Amino acid sequence: MSLACIATRKYGPLIVHGHRHNDQLVLDLFQDDPQGEAVGRLSLIIVDAGEPLGDDEFYFDPEHLALQEDLLISGQFQPTGRLVRHPRDGTAVPIWSFVRSSINSM
User: Fold this and answer.
1) Which of these, 104, 81, 106, 103, lies nearest to 94 by C-alpha position?
2) Are 98 and 29 in contact (CB under 8 A)?
3) Which of 37, 73, 88, 90 is most buried as measured by Cβ atoms within 10 A of its Cβ?
4) How far is 8 from 43, CA to CA, in rounded Å?
5) Rounded mean pLDDT of 90-100?
6) 3-state DSSP helix/strand/coil percent for the chain, to nearest 5?
7) Domain extent for 10
């Protein structure tokens, strides 16, 4: 399901698609052009991270930290200030929130 369109400096306009997997919000990024190439996954699926997520929250993939400013400017995303450690390697993973009232309908 397409949730948002955001402008980025690195990739240009992107479409954010979302779905749920194991009750976690999964956000995928695609180019906003006729080919619609996948750019990457904005969220991580982490099982047993020890920090429960709200319906509109997700584990932000640290590989996409370069997009933080663009995401904030879009008004569609905000950091919660909470972090978890990835159980695999101990990497700090921030928890972010997708700002949209209709997300609960997903």
Assistant:
1) 81
2) no
3) 73
4) 17
5) 91
6) 15, 50, 35
7) 2-105
Q: What is the pLDDT of residues 54-70, one digit of tens each?
A: 989 999 999 998 999 99
> Under DSSP, is residue 74 helix (H, G, I), strand (E, B) or coil?
helix
Reduce the DSSP state of residue 9 to 3 states and report it.
coil
Cα 1 to the center of its chain, rounded Å: 14
Cα R_g (the chain), whole angstroms: 13
pTM of the model as a whole: 0.86
Report how far residue 106's alpha carbon sits from residue 98's, in angstroms, rounded to the nearest whole number.
12
Secondary structure string (H, E, C) spanning 13-48: EEEEEEEEECCEEEEEEEECCCCCCEEEECEECCCC
Is residue 104 very low, low, confident or very high in pLDDT (cuts 50, 70, 90)?
A: very low
Burial classification of residue 80, based on how many CB atoms lie within 10 Å of its CB (0-12 exposed, 13-18 middle, 19 or more buried)? middle
Strand partners, 28: 17, 41
| Average pLDDT of span 15-20 | 93
Provide φ and ψ at 90, rounded to 5°.
80, 5
